[in-house]
Amino acid sequence: MVVAWKEGRSMNNSWLIENARWIDPSVGLDRVGRLLIQDGRFAGLDCRDGDLPKGIQHIDARGLIGGPGFVDLGTIFGEPGREEDETLTTGLHSALAGGFTSIAMSSSTEPPIDSAASVQFVLQKAARASLAKLYPLGCVSKERKGEELAEIGSLVESGVVALSDAPRSIDNTALMRRALEYCSMFDRPLLAHPEVMSLSRGGVMHEDMTQLVLGLPPMPAEAEDLATARDLRLVEATGGRLHLLSISTSGSVDLCRGARGRHLPFTAGIYIANAHMLDEQLKSFDANCKINPPMRSASHIAACLAGLADGTIDIISSGHRPCSLEKKMQELDAAPFGMVSLETTLGQVVTHLIRPGVLDWSAAFAKLSLNPAKLLGIDAGSLAPGKPADLVLIDPDQSWTVDAPAMKTKAYNTPLQGTELHGMVIASFVDGERRYKKGD
Amino acid sequence: MTFAFSSSLPEQWKHRHLLGLENLSADEITLILDLAEHLHTATEGGRVKLDLLKGRTVANLFFENSTRTRNSFSLAAKRLGADTVEFSSSGSSVSKGETFIDTAKTIEAMGVDAVVVRHATPGTPHLLARHLEAAVINAGDGPHEHPTQGLLDLCTIRQKRGSLEGLTVALVGDIAHSRTARSNIWGLLKLGAKPIVCGPATLVSKTWEKFGVEVAYSLDEILPRCDVLNLLRIQFERQAIRPFPSVHEYALLYAMTNERMKRSKPDILIMAPGPINRGVELTPEVADGPHSVILKQVTNGISIRMAVLWLLLGKKGVR
Fold this sequence. Notes:
A: alpha/beta; TIM Barrel; 8-stranded parallel β-sheet; 12 helices; globular; B: alpha/beta; Rossmann fold; 4-stranded parallel β-sheet; 9 strands; 14% strand
């Protein structure tokens, strides 16, 4: 479809975006209207012509869907330390191109974000880039080694929104317990990647029929199930707030569903790839299919879809993990885990969750924007008047073919290369400033 | 079937590479076995050299230790008149700062027509096949496949029994880490045999049943109905946590001994892909006994590899 797009230069980050279908799960909004943005903040739907500020810029967004910008959790960039994979600038640009206006970035930099100085470094770099908003995650453990607690109090003071060692799991149960207790003092959630390493160390792919045939080192589902069970039990014991970043097994979904009934202070998340990508893809021996959690078999994916549909899984994250080309051009056991996905997440959600009827648009925005914003306690995830105008405009029907070299991310590692997705991000606004427009 | 080696290749062969047996049809496997027999005859068991692959070069690219497979491929190439070039590297190519693909491309640039590759990681031959113009032959990729070993095992059984149809063939030992087991399983299933995988539960997955393979933990239980035993080497080097308590206990449960021979079918065939651990998988009396076809397997290996090389390189116009 052709989008009518009339736009001049915006004064004071003020816009009138007309004729879009607006979705805001925070107030149950789903209807066509015109949204006013004034001085970088939302100023309500359906304002009268007489109330419009002079010289405001108009966008005719007929046919588009608009909603609060997405909030990603545990996003991996490479700066500092692995700039060959991704810099903060390329990463935050990639985020905007995918509709993500807030990024809670993984602490897995080199050096890791385990001190006030490293927090300041990434915050300043991100502010200078002036793209998506960056919220650093701080390390749970010193040097992210999983041995002793990092200086969590100082980290919180210097601006981290949550604590996480992900993508590394906290293998030491005693440390996990301490961390949940300690984080609760600062009312900050702990974001965990559930994996019992002694069961999956050295693994390349999900253990099942395909793995048996290929003979690749296995990552059994129970390695995740046991960690999920352990962490939920520790939440129950300590009252600490937990977000499971990356569940992918039917066992984890069942455990979370059960724990939900006991009203524990936790949320459950999934990386979008685990909602649709099958372990059989590894038959290609393509290192881009090596991700963690691994692509699972059909029964696990079905369980995850059920968990997404019934609300057991609250949050969808991109699982963005860039790797430079030369790192993926290795033997499968030597190649690092990961795929870039900030720019494909919306397409994956539309193609594999919305179009098949697993989620409606409101639920999708809740899981991509409202719920992660609430978890982090950041001012995002809603179109309510007075809120910062972080916004995404989407063409829900536009299909496109994934072409990694054409993406904003620096890395190319996606197993989705060449596949067709539906749903395209047309523009992203941060604090009322249009910082991304398709085709720019 | 007769083959006119000087003319064109059999039409039913369509593959550019030999990466595994999983994706070959029964007809294609049979074609290779037939061709191997003919080449064995044509070379008079190695006394006569042919010039079917004159001017072609075969590179042996071995990233894991091997003596028999490597020499077998070299001899096969030479008996067909091809030149060979050897490349070996212990450990990962990454440690030398060069990617595996770059190493292979360098070898290819020297003008080779086929690359025979062995590597500890499953899928590396497939990776090469995507990046190289040359024909790629998988000589073992981790625990995934070892197609020429599977073919030579099938060839040996067929020689002794005439056909594989209906035969019960037990693969005994470390199935989890065995590429030989996997290539055998696909070949046996396609040619109508009944494969059993037998060994400690830590090394034999129940999931094999989903592929139509019988799973057994007791050798003594299945022994009386086996036509063939293929005794796989215990791969000590691949195990992080030892999957059985001791070699002694393994031998007690799974070693083929004279005593167990007495409870076997009178015409049972004893095979082993080698190298064998005498006293672990089988005792010396069994290895050297009248039922053992272990050395016959080695001889057939060369014929099989000649057949494969000719199928992949014999076509006129390659390079």
